[in-house]
Amino acid sequence: MNKASGGDGIPVELFQILNDDAVKVLHSICQQIWKTQQWPQDWKRSVFIPIPKKGNAKECSNYHTIALISHASKASHMLKILQARLQQYVNRELPDVQAGFRKGRGTRDQIANICWITEKAREFQKNIYFCFIDYAKAFDCVDHKKLWKILKEMGIPDQLICLLRNLYAGKEATVRTGHGTTDWFQIGKGVRQGCILSPCLFNLHAEYIMRNAGLEETQAGIKIAGRNINNLRNADDTTLMAESEEELKSLLMKVKEESEKVGLKLNIQKMKIMASGPITSWEIDGETVETVSDFILGGSKITADGDCSHEIKRRLLLGSKVMTNLDSILKGRDITLPTKVHLVKAMVFSSSHVWM
C-alpha cells in the first residue's frame, strides 16, 4: 500500500498521469458538490500516522501525528476554490496583529515587532510586561458548532458555511502504524489537519476570541507612536503585552475566559511571563506561570531588556556548533563552494534580519 495515500487509498502518482476524460470526471464531481453541497465520504476521511517525539514511547502525549487526506480532493481543486472564496473574508476580518498563515507575513515579522517594542520601551524608560500564551492542542479542540456560528457572525455567506459544515459532518479517521491500521472512527471536533481550509478557519476562530476579549477597545497595552498595542499573533501563538503587571493579568484573564467559551484551554505549564519591571508570582487555576528573563520565539531569543547582543552571541555559538558538525562536509571535495556557502548562510543567518 502507498503510505502517502489518504482514506481512499489512491496514490498521488495516479493523478499525475490523468487524461482529459479523467479530468472531466473530477470536474463533474466538483459541480455536483457545489450543486448539492454534499461531499464524497472518502474526501472526509483522514489517515493519521503517529510520529514519535522524545520521551517514553508508551505515552500517547509523546507522539505527534501527520494526517493524509484524499489526493482526489486536492487534485479536483475544490478545496482551492473554497479557500479563494473564504480568503477574501479572512483578509477583511483579520487585523494587522495576526501574521499567521497570511501572505507576506510570518513569525519573523512578529519577532521583529517585539524587538522594536522592547527597544522603544527602553528608549522611553517604560516598563514592559509580556505573556507568551500557549494553547493545549488548539487546532484539535475547535468546536464545530461554535465555528459555524462564528463564521455566520463574521459575514461568511450561508452557501460557504453549508459546504464547510457538510465537509466536516461525518468526518472519519483511522490510525496507521507499522503494526496495521485501526477501524474507522468519528471525529467530532478540531479543524482538518492537512487541509488548506484549516488555517483560514482557525484564524477566524482565534479572531472571534480576541474580539470578545475586547483587546481592541481596552486601554491596556503599550502606547508607542500614538498607537496602543496589546497583542501580536502568529496563528495560535499569541503574545500579550502591557505597561504594568495588573494590565497584563487583566488581558490574560479576558483571553482565558473567552477561549474557554469556545473550547480552547490555556496550557499554563508552557506559558511564560517576561517583564522588564518588578513582577510577582502568578498562579492560574492552581498552577504557577513561570517568569523568565528571556524567551525563544520562533527560533529567536527575545529578552526583556531588548538587547539584541544576547541573540547575536547565541547565534554565533549555534553557528560554531553547526560548523563543527558540518566539518566533514565543508572539507569534502565533492560539494561545490557555492553550495557550502549557501549551507553556512542558512544555518547562521536564519531570522538575522531581526538584529542585523
Automatic annotation (TrEMBL):
EC number(s) from the headed UniProt entry: 2.7.7.49
GO MF, one annotated term: RNA-directed DNA polymerase activity
Top class in the EC scheme: transferase
Pfam families, A to Z: RVT_1
Domain Reverse transcriptase intervals: 32-297
Domain of life according to the entry: Eukaryota
Protein's name in the database: RNA-directed DNA polymerase
